Amino acid sequence: MSSFGGANTNPNKSFEVTQPPSDSVSSISFSSKANFLVATSWDNQVRCWEISKNGTALNSTPKASISHDQPVLCHAWKDDGTTVFSGGCDKQVKMWPLLSGGQPVTVAMHDAPIKEVAWIPEMSLLATGSWDKTIKYWDTRQSNPVHTQQLPDRCYTMSVRHPLMVVGTADRNLIVFNLQNPQTEYKRIVSPLKYQTRCVAAFPDQQGFLVGSIEGRVGVHHLDDAQQNKNFTFKCHRESTDIYSVNSLSFHPVHHTFATAGSDGAFNFWDKDSKQRLKAMQRCGQPIPCGAFNNDGSIYAYAVCYDWSKGAENHNPSTAKNCIYLHLPQEDERKKRNQNSFFGVS
């Protein structure tokens, strides 16, 4: 693995978010209703900014923040765009009525750090995935979970597009749930990728999912047995002999193309249907642990910071720069293409 040194963290000339976290960013997302951006961090904080657009310029205004007792690993917006759920190493999920200025309250607990949270509006339930090898479903008005689902190993990643929920665990298992019957596994699949699962993203049409791993590879997987011939994997986030983790998979909300972001410091845009890379962006000077589109897909936010892939001993918080950037995707970066031109399919 090559080191980044003091390389440029913004070679793509993206807009920089003001007052970024003081330690690595663990998750990032926009409200589905407005351009409010939330990020969680290893500095125990959940922060929100309002993003405003002025022509082709973007501005960010810090709005509010809350604290956890330990690093925050994940968050999710409620579908009404007013409330944020956040969880992490303190083994609890806080519900923060962000836009009403209310105080956060604890609404979920696990026996180990919480790695993933998802609000499921169709069920009015919160799903939480933990390293205690469970998924729990919560009615936020009650103190006990409405259901606890055992997993084969620690939850590493989770993606929900009701009724589809895909959970990636530590042993390369991918557990698929039909949320119309959430107490039974719909399907258990061993990852098509040979190494540890890093991220999953359910297709917008709920017919399958993407999976990314630490080996710089993405798998495109369809659930229907009749569509298995459409499954493939492809290489990305690699440079000669250096192989980097795929940390983030995000579907465009309109065109259903997708973005990957990796530990090589790059983010790329892809079209799975024509099997093409739409655009490769220049590598930033540090890894990208997470990225996300806003509600209409006109902004892609991404964090550039240390991603812990080389352990705590290689992290120096006093010198590391933690940045959040906003990129305005051009039409050729986000729209599907018609022709079929394979990209590194293997």
From TrEMBL:
Entry keywords, A to Z: Repeat, WD repeat
First and last residues of every WD repeat: 18-59, 65-106, 107-148, 246-280
The UniProt record lists the keyword Repeat: yes
InterPro entries per the UniProt record, alphabetical: WD40/YVTN_repeat-like_dom_sf (IPR015943), WD40_PAC1 (IPR020472), WD40_repeat_dom_sf (IPR036322), WD40_rpt (IPR001680)
Region (Disordered): 1-20
SMART domains named in the record: WD40
SUPFAM superfamilies in the record: WD40 repeat-like
Domain of life: Eukaryota
PANTHER family: MRNA EXPORT FACTOR AND BUB3 (PTHR10971)
Protein name from the UniProt record: Poly(A)+ RNA export protein rae1
Organism: Pisum sativum
